Amino acid sequence: MGSQIDAVAACAGDAAVLPMTPGILAGMRVVEASAFVAAPSGGMTLAQMGAEVIRIDMPGGGLDYRRWPVTGDEYSLFWCGLNKGKRSVCIDFSIPEGRELAMAIITAPGEDAGMLLTNYAPRGWLSHEMLCAKRPDLIQLTIQGKRGGGNAVDYTVNPSVGIPLLTGPQAVDGPVNHVLPAWDLLTGQMAATGLLAAERHRRRTGEGQHIKLALEDVALATLGNLGFIAEAQRGHVRERVGNYLYGAFGCDFKCKDARVMIVALTHKQWTALCAALELSEAIAELERVSGLDLSLEGDRFRAREQIAALVHARVVDRSLSELGPRFDRLGVCWSRYQTVAELVEGDPACSVANPLFASTDQPGVGRILAPTIPLDFAAGGRLPPVTAPRLGEHTDAVLRTLVGLGDAAIEDLRARAIIGGG
Amino acid sequence: MGSQIDAVAACAGDAAVLPMTPGILAGMRVVEASAFVAAPSGGMTLAQMGAEVIRIDMPGGGLDYRRWPVTGDEYSLFWCGLNKGKRSVCIDFSIPEGRELAMAIITAPGEDAGMLLTNYAPRGWLSHEMLCAKRPDLIQLTIQGKRGGGNAVDYTVNPSVGIPLLTGPQAVDGPVNHVLPAWDLLTGQMAATGLLAAERHRRRTGEGQHIKLALEDVALATLGNLGFIAEAQRGHVRERVGNYLYGAFGCDFKCKDARVMIVALTHKQWTALCAALELSEAIAELERVSGLDLSLEGDRFRAREQIAALVHARVVDRSLSELGPRFDRLGVCWSRYQTVAELVEGDPACSVANPLFASTDQPGVGRILAPTIPLDFAAGGRLPPVTAPRLGEHTDAVLRTLVGLGDAAIEDLRARAIIGGG
What we know:
The structure is a homodimer. Chain A is α/β, with parallel strands linked by helices. Chain A contains 17 helices and 13 strands. In chain A, helix 5 links the parallel strand 4 (about 115-120) and strand 5. In chain A, helix 2 packs across helix 7 and helix 7 packs across helix 8 (about 215-225). The longest helix of chain A has 24 residues, at about 180-205. Residues about 1-20 of chain A have low confidence and may be disordered. The interface between A and B is large, with 156 and 156 residues. Strand 6 (about 210-215) of chain A pairs antiparallel with strand 12 of chain B.
């Protein structure tokens, strides 16, 4: 723990300080031809473990360069959140000369290099066949909206897999979309996993490959994995249950001065809740009347409304300062609903008291609280949070070191607007 | 593609058929001491890539063994969805003799073995120090609710990071919980990534390690990565926007016989939508009146209600059979809201027409449509979908092969109820 805090303290305020340790993936090089959430978040995960991740964008930025939230100067907080620790290169890959440069970067030699993560269609400069002609052991992971390449984003995949019609209060007419692009994030993380698996395979066999990953398939597989598909096949219709936790007891409650979520998924959490709110007699009576066994999670779900009424009666007039410590002491599983503002302003978990975070000086923005990777590696070290690059910041350096261009050639490319940034 | 379909066809209906290829992680062995979503989904990802994943449970099953959805016989569709392809071992690890056996399994030799994934507290038989005494290069990944080990689940983490108060219609009083345990799923996937990264490190250095991963940190880091934290630090209050896509144009719409989601995140998607619904004149007028430039995503968000009114007027009286093909032809980014039942009954993406899926014969359940991993590896092969084990099915085999016990010893353990299943 101590070394992380030292590393964090050392880096706080100075984005240019080298990390204390090179990170567990030091030496690996990945090129990212990407935009939005899925591919960039996967690439950033690798960068946050010490891989060199080179993101190639068009001069002026890609499709996501102005994605909200933005500052008053239209600088994207989304972009700088999802591209921390990467090298940024701007090349006009809409023209042949630019494409040649991009391909050279992707296929540049190096034992731990020749890895490409993209959510663009694998055509032209991203054609696996063409890239393999330059580097036969290339590992390429292409994220698609749908298998076969159809047009889809997180916000269209979610409706198609049934989740919005299961979300929200029963009184709502119609679907409730999610705010968090969960499918994008999961796909990005799975892409990182896939790249590491393929790299391991290459290390053992010398063989690269093209891996495909469809956002829609990630959603469909998840629905299968959680049991939704088998349940529907067996004729059971899942219904909207508002804020109740499906299949066990859990719900939101108003207490005097706050709103809390209380969960009794396991038996231990249930007995803790009953103890904390002195529910035992009432629960015994409810069991008698209903014939249910509330020590079983499924029966707790069946009796959720009656249990919720009992809980409500015991919390509605009590303050959080009374309930919270009691819950914690007795092992109740609960949390308080916070707005993002309350989280950021008042929760120690969202501050530099949490080794996940440091204060960084983000070019284009100023001081922000930035996270590193949640994975806390004891050996190989967890790198401290870093900033996102300025757009095109590393164009020259990458062209020099990976493509072998000299100053005159680079100047000429810039003069002809084939490269940008830097 | 052909070999996948062959593999799928060969396996459909017969869970015991060996896969056509061993999978990209063939040879790796991971032991899972786990329950619920995060650790099991991470372990299953590795199993679906060919790793041998041995899940250890108490005899009779762990905390999640009856988690809903369940069949009429209380067999959990959740459990069989999240534990496909694993070996199941039942050992009473509440007693010393059982713990010794479990530790022996975890630390059993093998170059690609000695890997542990758990969401139990790293104490006793899961103490990293004690396990390393038996196998110094052990890689252990411990998933925690909160860093430091506090009591938290997906459904309590989500309220604390602000998402439920941003979800759902503005008219709703209070928070809207998510149905999908997004934090659990993301944490599980990140655990798989972390294990592979650590295994790579060990291959290069001989060094194992203990990695910690807190569910709460995954959520907090994500809020940071998407820009929510920096935005709040700068004093901007994010508000609930119902089903609108934040920062661009996107919304749900009723047409005559269906509800659809339409997204214009990129300029290309926007021009496609304007063409498909013949909006150009109305949009030009809206731009004139508002002073906004609707070719910019941020301005589309600002004018979302006016744009939505225009779109609504053009779709509300048209059927999906008219709109859908037009949208597809012109490249509109859209989807239809489906229930899970509609997805399962009618969508080819959720059928064996999609190589992601096969029909498997799940012990305890019967025929179900089961997915394999969404990652489609060209080399190393994508394994077909498989079934989940029966509880404790592999206890004897694992004790024989990894711990070297003979039949008499195994019989004795079973007679004394130290092991179960099989």
